[in-house]
Amino acid sequence: MQRRNSRNVRGIDVSRYQGKIDWKAVKADGISFDFIKASQGHRYIDPTFTANAKGARAAGVLLGAYHFVDATNVEAAKAEARHFAEVLEQVGGGKTLDLPPVMDYENNPGKLSKTLISAVALAFLLELERITGRKPIIYTGNAFATNFNASLGGYPLWIARYSETRVPSDTVTWKRWDIWQYSDSGKIAGIIGNVDMNEYDGTADELRERFTKRPEQPETVTSGTFVVNGKQAGKTLLFDGRTYVPLKVLANAMGLSYHWDNAHKEAYLNGAKLQMVQLVQGTAYVQL
Length: 288
Known about the structure:
Number of strands: 17
Structural class: alpha/beta
CATH topology of the largest domain: TIM Barrel
């Protein structure tokens, strides 16, 4: 991935661990944007979220928020997205943020397969976008980023790699970062102790133009239909330029055998394992 650039704008991310923050001092020290922890799992709410959001807005720091994902299955992921969206209502809702809401997905305590990790991520992202109307950002670590498949490549990437010299690693899904968390030991006026430091790949004006100016545009996820031998066979999911169809419907329309391995979240068509698989509302979709 690309290196940092002297023209890039600086930002921070904070949670309750930073304590009380003097946001005017943060702004005066050259910080243009921030991401504030809002929630985690199904119930947790960061106790400093609303105070930090109010302070950042008053100081003129571009406001974003993030949720730490604990889910180990698709339904739990969707429930967490709904929890995050509810917490965002405390500060006016996801649409009022300057920056898109963030899915923080960086560890795997459930020892999920890469396919299921991507399915959990996509379920969270789609549900959050459905509720908030904003296309989220994905935050993850340099090593963990390799778990996400190409279906997630349309989302902006905020990646953590704490180094002054080593750039984040290329993955199958991403070759560039949008935001780089390059240190967890920054020192900024207005904050006692260390704080995570970030850099957006562009100027403050470019950051503002990309994320705060939101013209009308097509939905990221839309529905469609597909045709086999001249006959309409079923519905499709059109996601960021890729077409997905229900595994069972596709197999039946083409007269092929199919198998869904629920334990490993893997799909097989005529005995061949399919690579691009997504779970949406309990239905296995495969890339057409």
